[in-house]
Amino acid sequence: MTDGRADVSRRGFLRTAAGATAASAAAGTATAQEGTEGGDGGGGGGEPDYGGFLDQVGNFDGSTVDETGKDTVTVEVGVQANGGAYGFGPAAVHVDNGATVQFEWTGEGGGHNVVSDGDGPLDSGSTTSSAGVNYEHTFEEDGIYPYVCVPHEGLGMKGAVVVGTDYPTKSSGGGGGESAGPPEVPNSAKTLGVATSFVMVATLGLAYFFIRYGGDYETPE
């Protein structure tokens, strides 16, 4: 009789442990799937990485003016900065893909122009001191577009347009910005770890209970 009860107890213990393991594994898997399916996976959204291009610009405080949601955005040419009317205002602006940026001269600081730094689509041509919107460009590709006023580049007359959502950010290390730091552990992985720990504790607890109170566990003849 004792051997029979021990055998029944062993079977009950195994069924209980297996059920707890399966339930916890299913919960962890469901959470992991939810974390994967719930993420939008979109790019951008972080702080743009200008690669130090705007570091010496007098009217750039490290922030990018958000002008998304607008079809047309204005950037002034010849605002007070860098010891005179040698700045773009704002120095850095974020617009939607497809938006048009109008460059409006203030008429201050002499002749200015707008030219991409390196390869790029911006080129207003010769310098002009005439006030008004003398140049505009519609951006049709995501990214960061740095530009300068050629005659006053040495004075720090620089600017940048951030377009869309797919652009280098400091968190992604896209061009010499701040380091990203250690990667964050996904919530699904944390949940799975907690579930696994629970199963281990529950199994050990059950094992102790049956060893302590379940009688002889030798296989009956």
TrEMBL record:
What's the record's note on cofactor binding?
Binds 1 copper ion per subunit.
Its transmembrane ranges are: 192-211
Q: Which cofactor does it need?
A: Cu cation
Ranges of compositional bias, category Low complexity: 19-35
Domain Blue (type 1) copper positions:
76-163
The cellular location(s) given in this protein's UniProt record come to: Membrane; Periplasm
* The keyword Transmembrane helix is annotated on this UniProt entry: yes
Q: Could you name the Gene Ontology cellular component terms for this entry?
A: membrane; periplasmic space
Q: Which InterPro entries match?
A: Amicyanin/Pseudoazurin, BlueCu_1, BlueCu_1_BS, Cupredoxin, Halocyanin, TAT_signal
Establish whether keyword Cytoplasm is in the entry. Answer: no
Biased composition (Gly residues) is annotated at: 36-49
Q: Which UniProt keywords apply?
A: Copper, Electron transport, Membrane, Metal-binding, Periplasm, Transmembrane, Transmembrane helix, Transport
Region annotated Disordered, chain positions: 19-67
Superkingdom of the source? Archaea
Q: What Gene Ontology molecular function terms does this protein carry? A: copper ion binding; electron transfer activity
How is this protein named in the record? Halocyanin-like protein
Species source reads Haloarcula amylolytica JCM 13557
